[in-house]
Amino acid sequence: MKRIKNMYEKIYDFENLYQAYLEARKNKRYRDEVLKFTANLEENLIQIQNELIYKTYKVGRYREFFVYEPKKRLIMALPFKDRVVQWAIYRQLNPILDKQFIYDSYACRKGKGTHKAADRLQYWLRKVNRKPQKYYYLKLDISKYFYRIDHEILMNILKREIADKDLLWLLDVIINSEDTKFGLPLDADLDNFEGERLSDVGMPIGNLTSQLFANLYLNELDQYAKHKLKLRYYIRYMDDIIILHHDKKYLHAVKDDIENFLNEKLKLNLNRKTAIRPITCGIEFVGFRIWPTHRKLKKKTALKMKRCLKYLQKVYARGEVDFKTVNATVQSYFGLLKHCNSYKLRRKLLQALVFVRNSDRRKE
What residues form DSSP beta bridges with 66? Predict the structure, then answer.
């Protein structure tokens, strides 16, 4: 693949910036910062354009908060102006880099996603389940992936792909943020971490470019797995990886090879969730437990869903949320349940799904 050249001008092209603005404002157009940016749209886009042309652009200050689904994560949100810049880069760079990713990488890619990943893995399970050998799966999980991506290694990968010095400058400004540190020590406990974050590792979860960089970083492993190890049944959703094979000893050897590659080439480590088990146990992947014959929602996810609906019933009864908000949540849950065998769970949820206002006790 030829190295990418002459892309920087396309990124700061006014039309590209305008399209980036439209992408960045989707589902957020009535937020205060978006309305403020939109009120002086042309002026703000020209300011971004000039900052990129004259290389005076600096990343804004991140707003930090935690999310707890599917596990506790530190999210770093950029000001709207910087999200426009992120989209401007992504619109030009992602389509080119995406072409070199393997087919069975499913995270943050157009036409892929969790449901496609679950379908693909189940297709493989049905296929191998018809064979005479007993099949096993190797589940690999990388420890603190986003917090441990090495900046120097990432920049070297980008330099191998990109020959545009101006674009590399911009990507370096984003990766090596002057004001914010993203990394954590390998042994850090996110729940109780009070030390200083690291500046030479880590990507901010929530950034559009972080999704692209994270896929590009582990593409190194994907290529090694497919072309060096010749793995046939290999699938990845961000840092969750599943490999199928009928030889348990072979999977142990593959696990050692991959661990060595991650340690030496990418400075990453596997965590304790890494395991080898028969496929008859069901494989936890992208929010489901998957067997050749069926798939179910993970018990932990189902429990959280039930708790959330009970909480919504309480706050709706107190008048703290409207029916539109409640309905949106309920519809999203039932949309998810359509992708797995969930008849009993749906029935239980429907039986308990009564929303009543305390004021008039009316059902809606």
Answer: 74
Q: Which helix (H) or strand (E) holds 234?
A: strand 234-237
Under 8 Å between Cβ of 180 and 75: no
pLDDT in tens, 135-164: 999 999 999 999 999 999 999 999 999 999
pTM of the predicted structure, to 2 decimals: 0.86
Place of tokens 């700061």: 12
Q: pLDDT category, 332, cuts 50, 70, 90?
A: confident
Task: Please tell me whether residues 248 and 349 are part of one structural domain.
Answer: no
Count of beta carbons in the 10 Å neighbourhood of residue 17: 21
Residue 207 sits in a domain of what CATH number? 3.30.70.270
At which of 270, 295, 320 does a domain end?
295
Q: 292 to each of 61, 114, 123, how far by Cα in Å?
A: 47, 17, 8
Encode burial over 251-261: b for 16+ CB neighbours within 10 A, e otherwise: beebbeebeeb
* Same-domain check for residues 290 and 302: no
Alpha-helix residue ranges (DSSP H) falling in 28-72: 32-39, 41-53
Block residue for tokens 């349940």: 337
Q: What is the extent of the structural domain holding 135?
A: 103-149+203-295
Closest to 336 measured CA to CA, from 364, 304, 291: 304
**Total domains, the chain:** 2
